[in-house]
Amino acid sequence: MFEGEQLRQWVRAQRAGWAELHREQQDLLPAVGLEEDQELAAARAAAAKEPPKISRADRFGQGLAALTAFVEREGHAKVPRTHGRQRCGWVAASGVAAVM
After folding, report:
1. In this structure, are residues 23 and 3 in contact, taking their beta carbons and an 8 Å threshold?
2. pLDDT-based confidence at 55, cuts 50/70/90?
């Protein structure tokens, strides 16, 4: 279940990626007050055209290094939501915290 920050990110993704949604999905969202955000969609399209600033492998390496340092310091891999947004986001998305 989506909660808090996850739900906010999901809502933003729907508004930015409206054109990629199936027509049925587009029809459901206005009923709960959600509409396309053309500024977000334009920003998303522009970002998709740019080459990534960092490779996926490099991002993984950075996340793994951050998680390793956290585990060494804290003794566990259960990173709280309030711990450094960028690093915490990688851990949550990767599922590493659940595995370790």
Report:
1. no
2. confident
